[in-house]
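Entry 14. Ran structure prediction on the chain below.
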Amino acid sequence: MKQNRLFPILFLLIGLTLFSCKKQKIESRSCEGTMTILTSGYNQDSVKIFIPNVFTPNFDTDNDIFGVFGTGIVSKKLTVYSGASKIYTNDEDAFWDGQVNGKVKTGIFRYEIELVTIHGETVNIEGKFTSLGENPNEFTLENCADCIFGDMIDSELGAIFTTNESLSGCP
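Output, structure tokens:
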């Protein structure tokens, strides 16, 4: 009889622990991202490629899309994955608004990008990025210096500007 009384309390404690661990995981990895160019030998003098590692699809017109920026690019194809599942593909402009089935997604995602340069070269890129979702101030960023938003990127020079984002934990 005493075991039956403990079961609901134990279940509640386990549930709260799992939920808080998931949120902590996203918070601690907030602006981490990777970019690996899988193609070698393309003309890097006239082709510049820049990809942000974080965005905030909250419809405030600052950093609402994720994608590739640069010069010397003729066409782009973007595929976004959540775990092993393909959640988005765009063959036209290689930008994603963070939505799947009309709902904004938050978390860390994997991408694959295929570019064709002005020289006819195909460049394949893969990496990870973070979506802070519709309510980015719910997350406290530990190191804002690791964040590269789209509005920081100059297509010729790279990430040289300061962002317009106003996030908790960032100056």
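Residues 6-30 have pLDDT under 50 and may be disordered. Will compare against last week's run tomorrow.
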